[in-house]
């Protein structure tokens, strides 16, 4: 999507994304929580199942320059301490460079990377072994309990998925150069376009609306088989849905071959 600078594709999805962005602006959050994956950019040799960024920047990608994120460091520390006390051995990371998994939703939905204070919460969705879906849900619920105690308007975002198989993530190699990554993506793009699974995506979106935990857990734990290696990012949807604690509705779905991804949006009914 970021490479589609002429905005030639995904018109239906882009239109709904713009409507959601308007809703977010009207909500005017004080703080944004972003559950995101990592494409083996920030975490390679050491890969935490769950982490909280105390300070962070954005990598230069898709024509965007590198930039810092306005991380709510004090609140991030309080959240980390809360989760540790709640039984989560969560990693605290500092000066971590995050990629489009965090930058894109902040730009496309949250009004920009510096629109308000942010707490990035990386979830390992790329490098096996991955956290179990039930544990991801428990993390989201715990974050929600922490947010209940804040006197603030909080936007919660889960970003990633739906069905897609990025060629670079299909490699077992955990540490490749940016040049090698670009080559693998370029050579595998044509095949990746054929790996979108619309029926599977729509089943997941229905389970999100119904908050059918059994189906969500089963689909997420078996995401690679059902929707490709990139579908492991469903974990971020589960965490965000559990943290938000509200019913969700699917507002858009469009398989976009040129982006190699089934593009979907689900938002809080209260939004």
Q: How would you summarize what this structure contains?
A:
By secondary structure, the chain is α/β, with parallel strands linked by helices.
Which characteristics define this entry?
three-stranded parallel β-sheet, 271 residues, Protocatechuate 4,5-dioxygenase, Chain B, three-stranded mixed β-sheet, alpha/beta, single chain, 10 strands, 18% strand
How many independent structural domains? 1
What is the top-level CATH class? Alpha Beta
Structural class, by secondary structure, is alpha/beta
- Second-tier CATH architecture: 3-Layer(aba) Sandwich
Low-confidence stretches: none
Range of strand content: 15-25%
How would you characterize the overall build of this protein?
This protein is an alpha/beta fold and 271 residues long. The protein has a single domain, classed as Protocatechuate 4,5-dioxygenase, Chain B. 41% of the residues lie in helices and 18% in strands. The protein has ten helices and ten strands. The strands form four sheets. The chain has a three-stranded parallel beta sheet with strand order 7-1-8, with helices on both faces. The chain has a three-stranded mixed beta sheet with strand order 4-3-6. A two-stranded parallel ribbon has the order 2-5. Strand 9 and strand 10 form a beta hairpin. Helix 4 packs parallel to helix 10. The longest helix is centred in the first third of the chain and has 17 residues. The protein is globular. The protein starts with 10 loop residues before the first helix and ends with a strand. The model has no long low-confidence stretch (mean pLDDT 92).
């Amino acid at each position: 999507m970021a490479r589609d600078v002429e905005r030639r594709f995904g018109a239906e999805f882009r239109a709904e994304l713009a409507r959601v962005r308007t809703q977010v602006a009207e909500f005017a959050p004080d703080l944004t929580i972003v559950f995101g994956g990592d494409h083996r950019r920030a975490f390679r040799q050491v890969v935490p199942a769950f982490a909280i960024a105390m300070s962070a920047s954005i990598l230069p990608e898709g024509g965007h320059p590198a930039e810092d994120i306005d991380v709510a460091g004090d609140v991030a520390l309080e959240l980390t301490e809360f989760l540790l006390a709640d039984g989560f051995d969560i990693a605290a990371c500092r000066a971590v460079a995050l990629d489009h998994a965090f930058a894109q939703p902040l730009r496309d939905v949250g009004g920009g990377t510096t629109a308000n204070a942010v707490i990035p919460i990386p979830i390992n969705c790329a490098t096996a072994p991955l956290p179990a879906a039930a544990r991801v849900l428990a993390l989201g619920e715990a974050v929600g309990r922490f947010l209940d105690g804040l006197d603030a308007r909080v936007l919660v975002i889960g970003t990633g998925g739906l069905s897609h198989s990025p060629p670079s993530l299909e490699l077992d190699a955990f540490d490749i150069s940016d040049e090698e990554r670009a080559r693998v993506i370029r050579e595998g793009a044509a095949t990746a376009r054929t790996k979108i699974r619309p029926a599977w995506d729509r089943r997941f979106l229905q389970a999100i609306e119904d908050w059918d935990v059994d189906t969500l857990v089963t689909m997420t734990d078996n995401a690679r088989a059902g929707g490709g290696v990139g579908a492991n990012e469903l974990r971020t949807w589960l965490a965000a849905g559990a943290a938000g604690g509200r019913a969700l509705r699917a507002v858009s779905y469009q398989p976009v071959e040129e982006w190699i991804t089934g593009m979907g949006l689900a938002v809080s009914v209260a939004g």
